UniProtKB/TrEMBL annotation:
Name used for this protein in its record: Glycosyl transferase family 1 domain-containing protein
SUPFAM superfamilies on file: UDP-Glycosyltransferase/glycogen phosphorylase
Domain Glycosyl transferase family positions: 214-376
Cited InterPro entries: Glyco_trans_1
Species, as recorded: Candidatus Niyogibacteria bacterium RIFCSPLOWO2_01_FULL_45_48
Length: 422
């Protein structure tokens, strides 16, 4: 097959993160299966390419930041390239333009991948010192609220119906798929669950680790290392993490490393001072890919107390599993779905329960070993194993190409999530 991936941007390996890592892996693996893969970047001005990509790259240059012009340009991009491919794979954020393409007679089937909620819902709100940042009553704030209501109505009853014209959608977890289905996205009634596709085998080889590496080093650190790294921005849970850690009774047994930087870094650092945690918390700053993974090799526990809304997932959590790291995540969330039995869960937004889980896992080396073993068991399951899900994608794409009206000729029941009928 000739597959065209339409995505926002591409980055080199050392600066790539999140969905860029996932998509790069998808494309490379689909090429290994005999496909001709081309990547089309929509916002190519944001590309950061210090080395050649392993696939063909086409750089389109959409510069408008506004919703409708972006999706109109996506429509034009699909029309421009339809004679060069058999199927399009698009980021879920481009479904409105892709739906218009199919509605107006676009020749090629469209496979969309969901990693974010509906666009009108995709807004993270800072939780740090939220009491200090309450908005004052004003006409401007009222007008902003009215605009959001209008935008919600347009997205829910017009644009989502347009997006439903795409042929098929995949998603990173069933909670996110259900949110899209309830918002009106009809193809989300039955989606392919593919987790966060991650180069597990390649990463383990490059890092020099095996499934036994973590279990063989448990208990060798002088203090139990708690680790988390990400952009210090709204919705990333640094406040909850610090509030929970402040309640840990035996903090002298732990060392908390917070990697990354971002717009809320000053607030995070100030919170550490206010809670009197300076001697227990380290800030290594922004980390390269190599540095991030090196910390993974040293850590004992990976903390991820919040990542946006309850239905989102984080690729750093999959990376932690690849390194065999036991994790602590909020229960009933997309994060908890991703890790399965390889984590301890706590009541969402409950700092006291988070503290109890940190204490329990820090004190029990055997439990950490068992959760590490469970990491690799989870990574072998068909809805998250990167090797299995890419094969499933390949089969499904062939089905769409052979039967673009949506009558899939292959049986992939082992990979589909439950139908979102509730």
């Amino acid at each position: 097959m000739k597959i065209y991936f339409v995505t926002s941007k591409m980055k080199s390996a050392n600066t790539a993160a999140g969905s860029v890592i996932e998509l790069t892996y998808m494309m490379k693996e689909l090429m290994k299966l005999g496909n001709d893969v081309t990547c089309v970047t929509v916002f190519s001005g944001f590309n950061d390419l210090k080395e050649p990509m392993p696939f063909k790259l086409v750089e389109e240059r959409v510069i408008s930041p506004h919703l409708l012009p972006i999706h109109w340009n996506v429509f034009k991009i699909l029309k421009k390239h339809e004679n060069n491919c058999d199927i399009f794979h698009i980021d879920g954020q481009f479904m409105y333009g892709a739906g218009l393409y199919r509605l107006l007679g676009g020749k090629r089937p469209v496979f969309a991948h969901l990693i974010r909620p509906p666009l009108v819902m995709d807004e993270y709100v800072s939780q740090i010192f939220q009491g200090q940042a309450r908005k004052k009553f004003s006409f401007t704030n009222i007008l902003t609220g009215v605009k959001k209501k209008i935008r919600w109505f347009i997205d829910r009853f017009i644009l989502t119906r347009l997006a439903s014209c795409v042929d098929f959608v995949s998603g990173i977890n069933p909670l996110l798929n259900r949110v899209h289905y309830k918002f009106g996205l009809k193809p989300a009634a039955r989606t392919l669950l593919i987790g966060d596709t991650y180069p597990m085998v390649e990463t383990m080889k490059n890092a020099g680790i095996t499934e036994w590496s973590y279990r063989n080093r448990v208990g060798k650190n002088e203090r139990v290392i708690l680790y988390y790294s990400g952009r210090m921005a709204a919705g990333k849970g640094y406040d909850l993490m610090l509030a929970g850690f402040a309640k840990v009774k035996n903090k002298e047994k732990f060392r908390l490393i917070l990697g990354g930087s971002g717009p809320e870094e000053d607030k995070v650092r100030q919170m550490v001072k206010d809670l009197g945690l300076e001697k227990h918390v380290e800030f290594p700053g922004w980390l390269s890919r190599e540095q991030f993974l090196e910390y993974m090799k040293q850590a004992d526990i990976y903390l991820l107390p919040r990542w946006g809304a309850y239905f989102t997932s984080a690729i750093s959590l999959v990376e932690a599993m690849v390194f065999g790291l036991p994790t602590i995540v909020p229960s009933g969330t997309g994060l908890a779905w991703s890790v399965g039995k390889s984590a301890l869960t706590f009541e969402p937004e409950n700092a006291d329960d988070l503290a109890r889980k940190i204490e329990r896992l820090g004190e029990d080396a055997q439990l950490r070993k068992e959760l590490s073993r469970q990491c690799y068991e989870r990574l072998k399951e068909p809805d998250i194993d990167p090797r299995q899900v890419i094969i499933a994608m390949n089969v499904l794409m062939k089905s769409l190409v052979a039967s673009p009206a949506g009558r899939h000729i292959f049986n992939l029941n082992g990979y589909f999530g439950k139908e979102n009928k509730d």
